[in-house]
Amino acid sequence: MSKRETWATRVGFLVAAIGSAVGLGNLWQFPFKTAGNGGAAFVAFYLIAVLLIGFPAMLAEFVMGRRTNRNAVDAFTELGHRQWRILGAFAVVTGFWILSYYNVVGGWVLRYIVGSAQGAYFSAPAEYFGAVSAGPEAIAAQLVFLGIVVGIVALGIEDGIEKATKVMVPSIVVLLVMLALWAVTIDGAGAGYAYFLTPSLDAMVENASTAIPFAVGQAFFTLSLGMAIMITYSSYIGADDNLLFDGGTIVIVNTLIGILAGLVVFPILFANNIDPALEGGAGALFVAVASGFGGLPFGELIGVVFFAVVALAALSSAISLMEVTVAWANDNFDISRPVLAVGIGLALFVLGLPSAWDTAYLTWFDNMAYQLLLPLSVLLLVLFVGWVLAGDAVSELRQGAGSLGSFGPIWMWGLRIVVPLFVAATLVLGFQTMFLGEDPAFFAPF
Length: 446
Ligand code: PHE
What we know:
This protein is mainly α. Helices cover 78% and strands 0% of the residues.
C-alpha cells in the first residue's frame, strides 16, 4: 500500500480544521441563539461551555489521530485497544449519517446563490423555500453539492482538501468582513447590534433551561466533534504541532465567525422590520434573512455574496465529514481514493434521498443525530481517552506543546468527569425528546 498522506504545511491542518468547524451552526444557530438568550452575556457563557466541554473533547480526538496516523476505527487498534474499535465505528457511522442530509442542505445553499442572482425569492421567500427545499429540485441540487465534495476529497489531502480549504476559509473571512462593513451602513444597523449583543442576565436566567442544553450541544457540534472528523484530520499531521495552540486557534476563529455572522444578519433583519425573534435554523436564513435582501439596494449582489459565504462554510465542513469515511476505506482497501470517494458519494446520495424528498425526513435524521448519536459518540470517545488511554493521551499531548504544567491532570479529570456529566445530561434530554415525546429541550440544528 502506498505511503499515507500528510498535510503539506502546518497551517494546512489548521485551516482545514477551521473549515470544518465553521459551518452552518455558526451562521444560522449561533447568532440567533445569542440574541435570544442574553446577548453578550450568552456569548460569555457559551465560551465557557466551549472551553469546558468542547476544547477538552477536541484535544481528545487530536491525540488519537496524531498518535496513530490512522483512520478513526483503526486508531483504536493502533493504540493497543482493538476491542474498543466499535467506538470509532460508531463515530464514523454518525458522521456518515449526518453528511447524508448535510448534502441536501448544501444543495439548498447552492440553489440560493442562483436564486439570489435572479431575485427569484424576493417576492415570496417562504413559498420559494418550500418549492426548492424538497422534491426533484432538491435532489438535483444535492447531487451538485455532493459532486463538488467528492471531487475535492478525491484529489486527496494535500492536493484536494488542503488546497481547497486554503482558499475557502480566507474567502469566508474576507467576504463576511466585507458584508459586516457594508451592514454598518444600512438603516437597521444600530438596532440590529443592540438586539444581538446587549447583555441581559435576566434573559439568560429566564431561558436557562433551553440555553444551557443548547450551549452544551453546540459546544461539540460547532467544533465538529463526535463524528471522528478531528481524529481523521489530525491523523495526517506529520510534524509535532502544538495541539493546544491549534485547538485554541480553532475555538477563537470559530467563535469570531459566529459573531461576525450576527453582525451581518441582524442589521439586514432590522432594516426590513423582519421579526428577529427566531429560533434560528433553516427558516432563519432561507426565509427571514433571504427576504431582507429583496428590500435592499443591490439585494441580488448582497444575496449572492451572503449565500456564497454559506456555501463555502458548508462545503468545507462537508469535505471534512466525507474524509472520515474515505480515510477509513483508503486505509483498509487497495482501491484508489477517487474510486472510493465516488462509491461513498453514491451511498451518501442514496441515504440522503429521503431528506431531499421531504424535509420531514431531514428533520428526523437531524434529530436522531443531534439528540442521540452525537452526544453518545462524544461521551464514549471522551470516556475512552480519559479512562482507558489516560496517561498515553497526556504524553501525546505533551509532544510539541512542551510542558503542560497542571493542565495534564486538569484535562484528564475534565474528560473523565466534567465533560461526561454535561454530555450525559444532554443525552438524557435528547432521549426524552425522541422517545418519550417531550418537547425538545433544545432544537436540532436544521
Ligand atoms: N462544525 C460544523 C458546523 O458548525 C458542524 C459540521 C461539520 C456539520 C461537518 C457537518 C459536517 O456547522
